[in-house]
Amino acid sequence: MELLIQGRNFEVGERTRDYIAKKVRRLQRHLPGIDTVRVELNEEGTRSQEHRMVARVTVSVNDGATTLSGEERGVNALAAIDLLIDSLDRRLKRHKGKRYRSEQAKKSRESSPRFMSPEELADRD
């Protein structure tokens, strides 16, 4: 898994990079096919202190076949990353569930006599 961390309008410290790497490893537990994770942190000049830091993540799964992305705002970089990783964690679980269910449906259709031709049924007996 390749992890790219980029800061805009400020420098991303070593402590923050380690924290992001630790959180991203949590995503890989659910879906080991993750190839690239791109994290972008941006500090915006807003009136609200609660929404000053913006974190964007793009996750590439199975050589770019699927791309999941998300964006969250927080008081600081760590808070924004926490919110974003929780959100992406739920999305990856949902993605994995959909993929698993579709594969199970294909397998059940292949082995079900209801979807077999009469020739296949005769060969099966």
Describe the structure.
The mean pLDDT is 82. The radius of gyration is 21 Å and the shape is elongated. The chain has a single domain (2-91), classed as Double Stranded RNA Binding Domain (2-Layer Sandwich). With 125 residues, it is an alpha+beta fold. The longest helix is centred in the C-terminal third of the chain and has 35 residues, at 77-111. The protein has a four-stranded mixed beta sheet, covered by helices on one side. Strand 3 (53-61) and strand 4 (66-74) form a beta hairpin. The chain is built from three helices and four strands. Helix 1 (14-30) runs parallel beside helix 2.
Quick structural summary:
By secondary structure, this protein is an alpha+beta fold.
What is the element layout, followed by pairings?
Elements: E1 2-8, H1 14-30, E2 34-43, E3 53-61, E4 66-74, H2 77-111, H3 118-124
Helix pairs in contact: 1-2
* Known CATH architecture: 2-Layer Sandwich
Counting helices, strands and paired strands, the structural category is: alpha+beta
CATH superfamily assignment?
Ribosome hibernation promotion factor-like
**What is the share of helical residues?**
40-55%
Q: Please mark out the parts with pLDDT under 50 across 5 or more consecutive residues, or reply none.
A: none
Strand content: 25-35%
Work out the helix count: 3
On the 0 to 100 scale, the average pLDDT is: 82
